[in-house]
Design a protein that fits this description.
mainly beta; four-stranded antiparallel sheet
Length: about 150
């Protein structure tokens, strides 16, 4: 175990037949959200098959996975947390959590979201960014203006 590692696994096993739409699953080594499931009835050579279509939660790529319904899949441990934006550098956000802990390793999204965060921060608005974390990867996925007088 590496220093600072909590020992928690990045994934946990689950039977294919238990996955539903909007659940998380690992497809081709990437954390994905299931957007569609199709069950194919038993054939003469085996058990019922399940087809899942998922979207990578970080890069938006689409993946498809077909497996017998009794097989297992890996499900990523996904967490989300909200941080106050302290600074926006070239390509990194300086963030502060509720307990005052600093986080300076989250990249500014390379999309319209990143442009909006930069622009509103430059206007002097106090912003809260939601960071999604799964399988040792994290990304800012949304933001909102902090309530007046609040955080």
């Amino acid at each position: 175990m590496a220093a600072g590692d909590s020992g928690a696994s990045a994934t946990y096993p689950l039977q294919c037949s238990a996955l539903r739409k909007n659940a998380f699953v690992v497809m081709k080594g990437r954390p994905c959200r299931v957007i569609e499931t199709v069950t194919v009835k038993n054939g003469k050579h085996g058990s019922r098959k399940v087809c899942y279509i998922g979207i990578d939660i970080f890069n938006g790529r689409k993946y498809e996975y077909v497996s017998p319904s009794v097989d297992g899949v890996d499900v990523p441990n996904v967490s989300r947390a909200e941080f106050t934006v302290i600074d926006v550098a070239e390509d990194l956000l300086s963030l502060m959590g509720d307990a005052g802990e600093m986080k300076e390793d989250v990249k500014v999204p390379e999309s319209e979201l990143g442009d909006k965060i930069r622009a509103e921060f430059a206007e002097g608005k106090k912003l809260l960014v939601t960071v999604l974390k799964a399988m040792d990867e994290e990304a800012a996925i949304s933001y909102r203006e902090a309530p007046k007088g609040g955080q």
